[in-house]
Amino acid sequence: MSEKPRFPGIRVTTNGNQLVAYHTEARLSDAGVFYPITPSTEMGEMYQLSVAEGKLNVFGRHRIAIEAEGEHAAQGGAIACAVTGKRVVNFTSGQGIVYGLEQYYHAPGKLATMVIEVAARALTKHALNVHCGHDDVYAALDSGWTILFGKDSQQAADQALILRKVNELALGPGMNSQDGFLTSHLERTFFKHEAELIREYLGAPDDVIECPTDAQIELFGPTRRRVPEMIDLKNPMLLGPVQNQEHYMNGVIARRNNFSEPILGFLEEAYADFGELTGRHYGLVTEYRCDDAETVYLSLGSAAENIDAGVDYLRENDD
Prior knowledge:
By secondary structure, the chain is an alpha/beta fold. It is built from twelve helices and ten strands.
């Protein structure tokens, strides 16, 4: 009999937006900067509700909620919070992602460790559609962000912690996606995280940690703040200067080799640590009945649940 995990979670009946925003991000972050857009609007509302209730996060910190004038401004504000050492989240979807896309590209270069929580939505083409599609997330594929998809709300909430941990090790931003409406608005009973799990698994943003890579040791020395204050009024520095080809090229390559390449290892380690603590095991790819399969379906998001059911049906009715 396997040993019971230390942090199996606390049962709560809710939907994906509420589980991710109210029960997860509002409990671990310092700030939320966002602009409402369907189907992620509720996430911003739930974050604002938590702040309005006067609740502190699990680290005993007050939080701020900022509703910007648009998604481009929201993303700029979130990056600003991140580079001043705050654990920050943005909520968006659909046209909101592509509207703020210009801001996405410079976040990795500024070592912004922020998370965007997405309720994935189809982009407007011949007509407007507020329902699920992944083309909004795909628009950001080349922007240098770590992007995760959850098959259900539980995985989305769990990966909010996992992605945050990876971002703060790798010093880069990440996007955590659940399917709009199909997942974001689906009511079920899930597990919210124990406060002690969040404190143990993530640690506080101002903890001093050992630098996990040679490049970070070169930049910060042997230790650094978990969420670095890249902009510090007491120790000012220049971020984002103008560079010509030879220096710009070297910077792009250095970023890829020294900051992007370690992400895969950090992800694998973060998934393993989370599974050991909670009993919920994920990975870069979650397999279901693949060992002896002749046909394997590969999917992102909530389609996986339907495919799992289809696999069961086909195996039970293999005639």
